[in-house]
Amino acid sequence: MDNKTASAVKAAAKECFVDRNTVAVSLFIKALQTRNVVTKNKLTRIIESTDYLALANHNNVVKLTKNTFAEQAEQVMQAKPTPLPKMAAKSFRNTIAPSVVVNPPPPPVTITRATLPLSVNCDTDAIVDVLGDIAIEHLDLEDTGVTDIFIDVGSSMSVKVNGQCVQRDKVIEHPDVAMILQNLPGGGPTVKQSNRVIFGQTLHRLAAVMYDGIITGVTIRVGRSVSGLLPLFEGLVEQKNVLLCGAPNVGKTTTLREICKYLSRGKCLCLIDTSGEVCGDAGNKDHIVGTSRVFRPVDPDNQYATLLDCVRNHSPDVIAIDELNTKGEVDVCQTIALRSIQMVASVHGNIQDLVFNPMLNKALGGSTQALVSDRNAVDGRKVVVQRTSRPIFDLVINIKRTSEGLEYAFIEDVAENVSRIMQGKPIQTRTRRIVGEELIETTEEVLYPHEC
């Protein structure tokens, strides 16, 4: 990197790191481009050539590793002055970089308290009944990390364990798939519009892989009910509209079951279980969702109609729904919330994905681009993304899988925090997880990637 580029990079860093030590990559790129620095396919090399910058958070964030600007200014000020001509001394003073004070984020605050260990219930016998020798010889169903089984004709069977796909040495043939379908309760699948079939009285789900109208494979989601999650959300979900976010297969439905069991105490809770994954095909089970009343829409594509029916005819105090999928369903949720009925729902995707999802982000207040004055510009940008309304949900629980297990990030004051995500600013989260017989709670600032 030549001296001219190095000076431009340093100037851009001074601009971006005035009151923080992290900044979104997109903002740093804009600061470089305003100084005529070519960044296309070169940003990583530019950052690595400095001794004060680094990429973090999956290359979505630029981090200031040391306050080199302040150090340089301090060294110059402490150096012994050399007699200079009057005009030269004035010029020298003007070249001293101003000291930049970087306020580090507050350190995480961790609280630990005792709790009961989690209890996991899984009907593994039902999977063995369907898969037969395939399960006996090639699967360890006692491993709670097993979440999905992938079976395709002509390929080796694979299993998702703790988020990673692991190949088994069993090559699937057409008779294997035919046997699996025949072993399903009822003698074969009734492929619904949602292409999901629940195993009889269990929580396991089977989906067919279709090729030219022929079933050539299946995906089996291993369903488990988990007891003991109550300490995670106790004291946070009462009297609030709650939205569960997270990637597929991180435990949103499992968490929804426990919240329904908790909130149904002394209240009328109507649960919309469109696919049957929450309660299984047997309908309501007290040990799974408490006294919740369970509704199953005839047409999964008209899930919103069942939501409206609950409001009009069944006097609910709380309505819960697993998987918001369409803008129409979000609109109905807003109608329900305006009637002082508590809402609990889940949605695929993390909070930052939902904030910029035009189909579903109305749940968090929607978004629009706005032209603002110089005074209100965000990091020099006069075209900014803003919320269009108040969020429907008062609390977002962002669930993710880590090396230490599942982690639940509780995001309160949703309106303020969604605005901060749109601006590329860190937000305050309360993170909880259960490890053994301990509930660990950490309060910290988290910077989510954002779009510009």
TrEMBL record:
<feature type="domain" description="AAA+ ATPase">
    <location>
        <begin position="238"/>
        <end position="403"/>
    </location>
</feature>
<protein>
    <recommendedName>
        <fullName>AAA+ ATPase domain-containing protein</fullName>
    </recommendedName>
</protein>
<dbReference type="InterPro" id="IPR003593">
    <property type="entry name" value="AAA+_ATPase"/>
</dbReference>
<dbReference type="GO" id="GO:0005524">
    <property type="term" value="F:ATP binding"/>
</dbReference>
<dbReference type="InterPro" id="IPR027417">
    <property type="entry name" value="P-loop_NTPase"/>
</dbReference>
